[in-house]
Fold each of these.
Amino acid sequence: MKVRTLLCGLAICSLGASAQTEVNPYVPGATVEGVTYYLPRTALRLTVVAEKQVYTPGEFGKYADRYLRLANVSLEGYTHWSIKSIEMAPYGVPDPQKAYSIQLKKRTVAPLVGLTPDGIILSINTEGQEDPLPAIPKESDAHKHLNPRDYMTQEILSAGSSAKTAELTAEEIYDIRDSRTSLIKGEADNMPKDGEQLKLMLDQLSTQEEALTQLFKGTVDTSTEVFTIELTPTELTDRMILFRFSEKLGVVDNDDLAGEPIYLSLKDMKTLPQPVEDEKAAKKKSKMEEGVYYNVPERIAVDVFSASKEFCKGEYPMGQFGQVEVLSDVLFDKKNTTQVTFYSSNGSIKQLTDTGEEK
């Protein structure tokens, strides 16, 4: 995703030689001209890789046991889905309840403020990078099968009935196996001159056998499909239905009882201390309300599972479950070139460098 960087001025207040930041909650229609930024909520992108297998019975399936001793060959086609993997990745979305404005006024210090395209704050006085999302796996198509008739002899093609065609095809398969065995043992009438030619001949025989055998065994077309689910948690949960999955239909609607429920749980790890009422701290913080707001996120344990299997789990700092704190406006006056970068996925401070040098 592209990151846009804005050059803007932080407002100067008439407090002697000190030029201070003025950051206030954004109020549509009431906030003066300025650069508006958001703190993020932490959203989750879940990538589901599902495998689809489609079985098509062979034309001579009913003769498989009689001629090739292939037992339990199904004469009915079917489709079978399975979940190969589920991966989670956090990313940030603007929190409309945490919108703030950096006011633009005359005689500004003019720091760099980096924002994502969605307006989430990334950096001040330096370049920031948006937290990258991993690439989504590519889907794969089913393997193209061989055409058995390309490997049939003239005798097989001219057979008068299905039963006779199956019998002659089975005989051809046995002849191919005999030829391969003779080559491997070095007993063939026309032995290849070198190992490379031997490998080529063996590969050709295997291809012929595979093409003809699928007339009895049938074919299985295997492909993978990728589904993405994006959600922004707003409350904790022990067992929320994320989606339903059917072995016959794949991903289905949440109200479709044909699918087995896949659950999501969100558990507060309680890594942050509980807020305490402290008059001195509150008074000090009230003087910083014109500073830069940032998130102190809470760590949330996320688990994706079904009744019989756990697919993935992880712990992620989530801005919406944490607290909002303020960086003092003193850090951004004329006497300082404080550089700050933020995590775009949760709004916490990634790095803070206070050079203390004049601009």
Amino acid sequence: MMRWLLPLLLLALPLHAEEVVLGLSRDEVSITTNFDGSEILIFGAVKRETAISDDPLQVIVTVAGPSAPVMVRRKDRRFGIWVNTDAVEVDAAPSFYAVATSAPWKQVLTDTEDLRHKVSIPRAIRSVGAPDTVLDSEAFTDAVIRIRESEQSYQLNLGAVKLSEQTLFSTSLTMPANLTEGAYPTRIFLTRGGEVVSVHETEIDVRKVGLERWLFNLSRQQPLIYGLMSIAIAIASGWGASAAFRAIRSN
């Protein structure tokens, strides 16, 4: 009896008909003193155990930086002076977040799946509560998104994923110069009819190296020495500029 039951149970389990085989042009980003950003090429293929479906497959790629709380303040003009009136702390907002898709948003993901997997930029930000005096707390989350989009820290690239023959895909993401050090979770979603059929996850490691790393460690481990060194460099720079100016005037 048990000998026949096991094959029947295996047949009843869902098959992963489509999975991602992923490649990255680089899985490490080194931040140096002259770092001005980086471009990451993300490419891969869809591994199948069944024939290609008539319903087209779509691909979504997300890359997220380390998350941290963000205090957002609202200014209002009172008696001719701009003052802070309301403040809301966004519980966790990624320092960097990029989304690339193979088609327009409504074709690649439903609202229900977005809520479940937290794919879109607003869903990637967690804001649990706000003071009772603030009735439009979503406006503060929108402010974070608007500011970071202007800095290229948040990116939505619709149609930027190239998908060939429902099998090969590729896209590139530009990472700005003001990256936060840490692990950057990278997710690839395969969707069909707006529903997620497979998810692949990996990480891109962003680290300071060389002089940048030494200065960063010094500022955290020996803040007094770092402060004295900064003052000495500022004094030396000022004296050097003054000496150069006097030399130019004397000539």
